[in-house]
Structures are given as structure tokens and as C-alpha cells.
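User:
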Amino acid sequence: MPPGYAYSSTSPLDVNDVVTEVQLLPGSALVEAARHARSAQKAWAAVPAPVRGQVIGNIGRLVTANFESLARLVTREIGKPLKEARGEVQEIVDTCEFFLGEGRRLYGQTVPSEMADKQLFTFRNPVGVAAIITAGNFPVAVPSWYIVPALLCGNTVVWKPAEYSAASAQAFYDVFTAAGLPEGVLNIVFSDGEQTFDGLEQALQERLVDKVGFTGSTAVGVRIGELCGRHLQTPCLELGGKNPMVVTEDADLDLAVQGALFAGFGSAGQRCTSLGTVIAHESVRAEFLRRFVEATENAVVGDPAEDVLFGPLLDEKFAAGFERSLDAIQGHHSVHGSSGLGRVTKDNPRKGFVGDPEHGLYYHPTIVDGVRPDDVLFLEETFGPIVGVTAYTDLDQAIELGNRPGYGLSCAIYTTDANKAFRFRAGIGAGMVSVNNSTSGAEAHLPFGGNGKSGNGSRQSGMWVLDQFTRWQSMNWDYSGSLQKAQMDTVEIEADLEFRLR
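Assistant: Predicted structure:
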């Protein structure tokens, strides 16, 4: 591969702490990796699926053996609280455990034919080579959602992780390859965004890539979707979110506050499923807001190695983006929180902060009341610790407000009325609905994904992701000894049957 240039992945806990340094390679490196994957794919697909499942099981056991060191590396490199980092590593284990069993359940069907002496079958075939591009806010869990099922199904993979989580990505790759994957089955390429796009474009032109999976921003997802469309491919796109939480007049407000606190500020609001706007019924809005503000002011923020709600932002580029979101606060908004606004520093301290904020990318949690349906803060993903609040009068209006931003990833409703819960589910455009729970959270055996600006309807996790990494093939086997012409002959068969039944 041609030489690239050096990139230093620094810790958001202390931007002077270089976690690792990698070479960011040109687009040609991705093309070469795709060629390597292509050469290994047929042999890997020929390995019986249950045996591929055993390799996935080996991966899960190796991750378990290296559990704590991997979690602590994630915390150091991206600033995720250690409890959340451990949960992320557990997600890999859960995914491996689920797909270990799927190695024995890559079922097709035996289908009855409309003709005599003829049998119909369906089979799942691997797509071939998958190019997977992932963000760094979940540097090990989300890649496993793509890579584990892709490998299980008999595909080979070229993986481009986020450069700002390069150390976590390398550790993930090392664990996977140590589990018994043959050479060329899983390939890692570090590159910047534009070079990755150029390499992907060339690999698609040369028909080296058969499936693209991407987790990241909606803007980049649009570009990847357009590129894949030119080659008649449907990518798996998991994009941004502006996830609403509806608090009804009959809700348990303390529970709703707990959900809003975790969904809005967990991982410093840097999840695709983070809470965007609380849509509270007008009769409970003031009381909910009072309790939410109080809980936020009392929440512990700081060193992610300690017991904190959230730590720093991921990287300096995300800190800059979040500050642009703060610039969207307008005169008709009411900003709540006595601790401050913007970056936490010695001159702009936060009450109860844990650790030394001076060299880290720490920000105050921010609640903005009075957001309106046309506000930037209502319509656009903010990707940081900020939550908007607005009111509604009836459930139809709440659903309309929840759908207005055009994202459709996750949502939540807090209610003790089953009728409201099911009406909300039927009307909201999100791919994932929580009742009396957070907008954030996923389980390895449930479909994950969104609609609208949150994705193209593809789903990850569970048995549903198998349709991303396999193609259905049908086969008909005629053992009648004569040419049967399906619908043309069935007309005669049906006419004969009708005659006999008279």
C-alpha cells in the first residue's frame, strides 16, 4: 500500500495524551484491501456455516477474556464513562452469542409447487465483499453489528473505522483476527473521509465491493447512498437522529426525568439515539421541567473513570460542532441550568465536577425550553449535551411534532395509558419506539435502524440483519420427465379439476 500521513488519536480527557498514532492511507489502500477480501471470499463462503459460527463464538470468548482492558481503552480514547464502555464491550459478546447460533439457522425454505413432480427451494447466499465504515462514538459495539453477521453469512469485510478511535479499532481487529479468521477475511484500513469515499467509488467501479454498510452523519450517508445507487446497490445506512420523547399528562414524571437525563446526556449526548426534544403535555410541562432541571444540576459530570453521568466530547471537531449548536440558542429560548453554558473550565466551572477539566473537552449539560417547530434546535441533530423542551395539547399534535424534523430513528413515550402508547406507536415514523424507557438502548436480538433522514430502512441486529448480508436464491427442480410450463399448464390443470368437481 502507498504511504499515507500520520494521524494522532488523542484522549478527550487530556488532549495532550496521544493514545495512538496511525498512518491514514489514500483511497487506493481501500481498493487493494477489497481485492484482498475478494480473493479470500470464496474459500470463506465454502466453510460450513456452523463452523463459521464457531469462529464467531471464539471471538466472543476472546472479547470476554480481554473485557476490562478493551473497555478501559474505549474510555481513555473517546471519553465514554467506564460503565458505558463496559456495556459497549458486552454488546460485542451478546452479538457473538446470538450469531453463534445463527450459524445453524441460515435457513432457506422448501416451497410447494403448483405443478406435480416439481419441488421449489430457497437459499441464502453471501453477498460477497462488504465495505463497512463506522463512526467512533461506539468504536467497538457498532462495528460488531456489521462485521459479525457479515462474516457469519460467508462474506469477507473491508473495515474503515473512525480515525479518532484508532486504538480501539485496532484492538477490536486484533481480537477478531486472533479468533481464527483466515487471511484476508477481515481487513482494516485507516483513512480520512474523502480518501475513503474516493477508494469506495473506485472499488465499486471495479466491482470489488458488493455491499456497503455505513454508520455516521446523515450528510455523508446521502453521499454514500447516491454513490451506491449509481452501481445499483442498496447500502445499509444507519444515520443521525433527532429523537423525541413525549411526556403525557398521566406519565410518571420522576421516571420520565430519569429517562430524559440518561437519553439526553448519557455519552454527552453523542449517540445517534440521544434525546433531541422533550415534548411534554401542557399540563405537566412546568413540573417536568422543574424536576429535569434539578436532576441535571445535581448530575455528576467529569472524569469518565469515575461514577459520572457523562465525560468529555469525543474529539475537538465534535466540540467545535457542538459550540455551533449552542450558537443556535435564540432570544425566545429559556436556558436552564445554573452551572454555566459551553465548555467547562476553571473560569466557567461546574458545581460538583469530578477531576480536572482544564485539558479535556468537557461541556455543561444544557436544557433549552421554548423551542419552536421551525427552530434549528428543534429540527437538526446537535450531537452534544443539549436537550430542547416544548409543549403539546393533544396526542395527535405530539406525534406531528415528533415527526416534523424528518428523522426516524428512535423515540419514547412516557404514559400509563396503553391506548396512548399504541396510538403513538402507530403514528410515529421512528424505527424504534420505547414506552416508559429511554430513547437510547439496543439489544442484540432486536432490529436496530431508522427511516427518513435516519436511514434507508435497513436494519441491523437480530435475524433481520441477515437480509443485509445475504441474497435470496430460488431453485426449482422438475423431476416429471417432461417440460412443465408453470402458469400455462396450470390453467389446464385447474380446468380439469373444475370439470371433475362438477
